[in-house]
Amino acid sequence: MQQFTRGELRFDVTDSGPADAEAIVLLHGWPQDRHAFDPVIPLLTAAGYRALAFDQRGYSPGAQPAPTSSYAMSELVADVLALLDASGVSRAHLVGHDWGGAVAWSVAQRAPERLASLTVLSTPHPRAMLEALQHPDQLLKSWYMLAFQVPALPETVLRATLATVLQRSGLPAFESHRYAARFRAGGTAAGGLAWYRAMGAAEARRAARRVRGILPTGAAPTPEVDPQVTVPTTLVWGRHDTALGRRGTEATAQWVSGPYRLVELDAGHWLPETRPYEVAEAILDRAGGQRAGDASGPAPRAQSPAPRADS
């Protein structure tokens, strides 16, 4: 499968491994695309799994709706479920990095029956993240989330500076320049930043409800779903992550009632690109399969992806 559709939107897909094997679905973050997992996928398919990665809305050229409301979390979750349906997968092992991790947490909350396991890279549980944002250390790391709420200006600035910004945060030069080139193409800049703006709009609505007295000051709105995650879960975090700190990482455990494990790496934020073996090992360990180096001898060494015409 190279594409799937949901309504009028068309999503680009990488589909590797046996079609009838257990499926592992991989969700990228910002400003990545599905190729962020290219170094990881050969390790998963060598262990006998089917690996599915897709360019999420805002990133696939055929799935870049303009309204900010189109990037609400409910829509992002529905995209993942549409991929499962289109690929004939009833239950999958779900993996998400960065924003893809936020979507993965939400899928686990809203549709746990569709998941066999959950592996999240870098991103704490959303409630743990909210708790962390009450403290200066995480607020300082997350300053850009507020900056991205400004219309148009972030797109203009990042078109010129994104490759440098990404390299300074620890992403290798090859991927930094490839993601920056994709960011400049078509509507990808606005599409990727719309995820942040949709989050900001949701928080503004909550604040307005408090001002009107619908919610008491400091109270959280009644959640649409139970925030507790019952799916067997692993969180993989790099202690040198420039965007996501220890406080939210350590607070995540209280929001997972299913089997849970925290894997801390001597790494930064860009785990799929820089730590593919450790990432694959964590995924396979949680999925109950073989470790990355145990599949009929050593797993194939993952190479940096070659430049692609669609990148």
Number of strands: 8
Terminal CA distance = 18 Å
**Main structural class:** alpha/beta
Mean pLDDT, to the nearest integer, reads 85
Beta-strand proportion: 15-25%
- Runs in which pLDDT lies below 50 for 5 or more consecutive residues are 203-212, 290-311
Give a short account of the largest sheet.
8 strands, mixed
- Binned, the helix content reads 25-40%
Radius of gyration: 18 Å
- The shape, in one word, is globular
How many individual helices?
12
How are the strands ordered across the major sheet?
Answer: 1-2-4-3-5-6-7-8
The quaternary state of the protein chains shown equals: single chain
Order of helices and strands: EEEHEHEHEHHHHHHEHEHH
Question: Mind explaining what this structure looks like?
Answer:
The chain is of the alpha/beta class and 311 residues long. The protein has helices at residues 41-46, 73-86, 99-110, 126-132, 136-141, 143-147, 153-168, 173-184, 188-211, 246-251, 271-274, 276-287; strands at 3-6, 9-16, 23-27, 50-54, 92-97, 115-121, 233-238, 260-265. Helix 3 links the parallel strand 5 and strand 6 (115-121). The longest helix has 24 residues, at 188-211. The model is unreliable at 203-212 and 290-311 (pLDDT under 50).
